[in-house]
Amino acid sequence: MADPLVLQETHGRVGLVRLNRTEAHNALHAGLLRDLMDALQALDFDPAIGAMVVTGSDKAFSVGADIKEMAGRSASQMLEGDPIGAFDRLQSIRKPVVAAVSGWCLGGGCELAMGCDMIIASESARFGQPEITIGVIPGAGGTQRLTRQVGKALAMEMVLNNRTLTAAEALAHGLVNQVHPVDAYLSAALKLAEEIASRAPLAVRIGKEMVNHAQESFLTQGVADERRSFYSLFATEDQAEGMRAFQEKRPARWKGS
User: Fold this and answer.
1) Catalytic residue among 100, 131, 142, 170
2) Active site residue 111
């Protein structure tokens, strides 16, 4: 029996999903993407889970798309089959997803990490979009998210000239949240996810939605939508409990309602 393409663990209220094509440096083929998204969506609907972590191996988060799977396809076959459409499922996840990245994080792997909500990197992490070297460009949001994260000039260099970023450079340019030694990055990602999972669930979900909305909307509309979402939380038990606990100087007991 073949090894599973993803491995799952539970750490308290955090679901950990690990890419498990280590022999191929976690190259993303259709089966791996399907199983990854299935795992994340199942955790998203699990009321016992408050946040998720996606990781690979210490040597490679993912080196990107499995080129052997795509090389012989025509433009019409790519459009009809839409293999990149699997990435869209990540954007439907309502709970926070933290990417724990070590080693190579290239092409579709970099796009996968950027599609998560936060990135914790090891000191060995290397980020890049090398598609130009095989005659194409990023196709799973790389040009769009990278530009928003690191700015136009650096994104141009990465997309057009295969520049890679070290973990320290990625931190300096706002691509990642934290950098840790290789033996500590995963525990740091789990710790961050555990802290977020301890917060009021509905507020976390709407907060994520509004931050993502800020990337996609005009400021005036985004602020108006944020205000409505803020007011709507005053209809929840968690809001009443949170403010009551603050006044009573005790930890809040969240219900997720």
Assistant:
1) 131
2) yes
What residue type is 254 in one-letter code? W
Length of the chain: 257
Active site residue 65: yes
pLDDT value of position 255: 92
pLDDT band at 183 (very low <50, low <70, confident <90, very high): very high
At residue 10, what are phi and psi to the nearest 5 degrees?
-120, 130
Catalytic residue among 100, 111, 141, 167: 111
Residue 127, CA distances (Å) to 8, 94, 156, 228 in order: 25, 26, 14, 37
Average the pLDDT over 185-210 and give the result: 97
Q: Which helix (H) or strand (E) holds 23?
A: none
Q: In the chain, what are the domains? A: 6-197 (3.90.226.10), 201-248 (1.10.12.10)
Tell me the pLDDT tens digit for each residue of 223-237.
Answer: 788 788 878 888 899
Whether 57 shows a pLDDT value over 90: the answer reads yes
Can you spell out the DSSP letters for 74-110? -HHHHHHH-GGGGGHHHHT--S-EEEEE-BEEETHHH
Q: Please state the pTM of the whole predicted model.
A: 0.91
Residues sharing a CB contact under 8 Å with residue 137, sequence separation 6 or more, in sequence order = 131, 143, 159
Instruction: Quickly tell me which residue has 């939508």 as its tokens.
Output: 225
Kind and range of the H or E run holding 245: helix 237-248
- The residue whose two tokens read 């393409």 is 5
Indicate the burial class of 3 (C-beta count within 10 angstroms; 0-12, 13-18, 19 or more): exposed
Is 131 designated active site? yes
Residue 246 above 80 pLDDT? yes
